[in-house]
Amino acid sequence: MQQGSRDADGVSELDQSIIERLQADGRRPYTRIAAELGVSEAAVRARTNRLIERGVLQIVGVADPLKLGYDQMAMIGVRCEGDQLMPAAAAIAELPEVIYVVVTAGAFDLLVEAVCRDNEALLSFLTERLRRIPGVVATETFVYLRIVKQSYQWAPS
């Protein structure tokens, strides 16, 4: 595939190269990306803006919860009543402690990632908020002991 060609999702190899560089450093200047890829700065800016407008790319600052005093992180498996799955998922997604919600196939209907200040805050979140959401039948909590890898850089093969 040539640099200007597109795959099924409408993302060209050039777009993918721009994305990879921004994943490594979201503040990397367009002029530097352009020089690395042998294209104009205007082309990099226009393509980046199109990727953002289409929802393919977001450029955001990512904070480390541990360095902000949120010492307790957990992944929570949630089982829901069949017809309440999506309403429960939407309600869970609104909770401020929740940073990730995904509908799954398998032992759990949902996987929920939560960030809390400490064990007491996590306990309160689980017992007073999460488990009281209509449609939530059961939960199983996996408390993080150590994060070995957390990356926002990936490149599909």
Description of the structure:
- It is built from five helices and four strands.
- A hairpin with a 6-residue loop joins strand 2 and strand 3.
- 34% of the residues lie in helices and 19% in strands.
- With 157 residues, it is an alpha+beta fold.
- It has a four-stranded antiparallel β-sheet.
- The longest helix has 13 residues, at 41-53.
Topology:
Elements: H1 13-24, H2 30-37, H3 41-53, E1 72-80, H4 85-93, E2 98-103, E3 110-116, H5 119-129, E4 136-143
Helix pairs in contact: 2-3
Descriptive labels:
157 residues, alpha+beta, Arc Repressor Mutant, subunit A, 2 domains, four-stranded antiparallel beta sheet, 4 strands, elongated, disordered N terminus
Task: Please give a quick description of this structure.
The protein is an alpha+beta fold. It has helices at 13-24, 30-37, 41-53, 85-93, 119-129, and strands at 72-80, 98-103, 110-116, 136-143.
Number of helices: 5
Strand content: 15-25%
Mean pLDDT: 90
Order of helices and strands: HHHEHEEHE
Architecture of the largest domain, according to CATH?
Answer: 2-Layer Sandwich
The rounded Rg comes to 20 Å
CATH superfamily annotation of the largest domain: Lrp/AsnC effector binding domain/regulation of amino acid metabolism (RAM) domain
The first-level CATH class name of the largest domain: Alpha Beta
Helix fraction bin: 25-40%
Shape: elongated
Classification by helices and strands: alpha+beta
| Poorly predicted parts | 1-6
Largest sheet: 4 strands, antiparallel
Beta strands, count: 4
Distance between the termini: 13 Å
Number of domains: 2
Provide the spatial order of strands within the biggest beta sheet.
2-3-1-4
- The CATH topology of the largest domain is Alpha-Beta Plaits
